[in-house]
Amino acid sequence: MPTNKDWNYHPDLPLQDPSIFSRPTDAKFLSGWFARNWLTLSERVLMLILAVAAYYTLYPSLASAQSFAPGWMLQILIANYILVIAVAGGLHWYFYIKRGQGKDLKFDHRDQTRNNRNFKFSDQVKDNMFWTLASGVPQLSAFQIVTYWLMANGYAPTITFASNPIWFVLAIILLPIWSAFHFYWVHRFLHVPFMYTRFHALHHRNINIGPWSGFSMHPVEHLLYLSTLCIHWIVASHPIHVIYHVIYQGPGAAMTHTGYEDLLVKDKRKLALGTFYHTLHHRYFECNYGNQEMPWDRWFGTFHDGTAEGTAETRARKKRMYS
């Protein structure tokens, strides 16, 4: 298992490019990408299953959202609290309390921080929980409430599977790609010194990330990050698409910030979780602003491939930015 003095574990380096944009005309590569993401029990498939289940069991019907009534709005808020607490809390319990996997496939040597006054309550996990639950879930729910109201009143275009089955399926596949596109540019904006020092620095307290770190942000950052959901205001979708997108942005952030690359079951990798790509961003800051879905970091010279040379380039770029 690859390891060194900087990392408890890291994947093979330098990091390769798994983006569909790296070889868009290679049919074999594209079919492999599709199979990995959509024909196995992947993170995306799990979130889609959860979205469909939540649509039928947790969330109100679209018909009830024609006016801003407290009942259905509160139902959305409670449903989102249930999902975020279940996913982030469940992952934290398994990996950091139960220690169900020890340090196998854990990127950072260190545990979550305590007795550190940089964090609210001098505790990293409590700080992350506070910002996630006090700002993240309410704002996530507010975007979903407005989207439901717009759809219910015909102000946002809607579809059903019966009316447009091709776009219904295609929209599910494209939503993570849209999210990655939106995230990169919002993230670059948040690293402008004025925005970083006032807002984004709160998220970057988490140099050593854990499940509760993913959705722990300043309220201004939550507003920008969650504006990705506004795509449903102009592009035809169904409540299942909205719920899938909500899960991808909220509970999904806990999964990608787990701090472990994969869930092991009987020593076999069963579920991809955190990415070393984004873990490098939390360690070195001015690199890997996006994710591996989109090629922007490679195209704009902000890619860190995990090597010592990549670290030197990132540190030099950071010095130039803040000098």
UniProtKB/TrEMBL annotation:
It is found in: Membrane. Keywords: Membrane, Transmembrane, Transmembrane helix. Pfam families: FA_hydroxylase. InterPro entries: Fatty_acid_hydroxylase (IPR006694), Sterol_Desaturase_Related (IPR050307). The chain crosses the membrane at residues 45-62, 74-96, 130-151, 166-186. Residues 173-302 form the Fatty acid hydroxylase domain. GO terms for cellular component: membrane. GO terms for molecular function: iron ion binding; oxidoreductase activity. Coiled coil: none annotated. One of its GO terms (biological process) is lipid biosynthetic process. PANTHER family: STEROL DESATURASE. This is Sterol desaturase/sphingolipid hydroxylase, fatty acid hydroxylase superfamily.
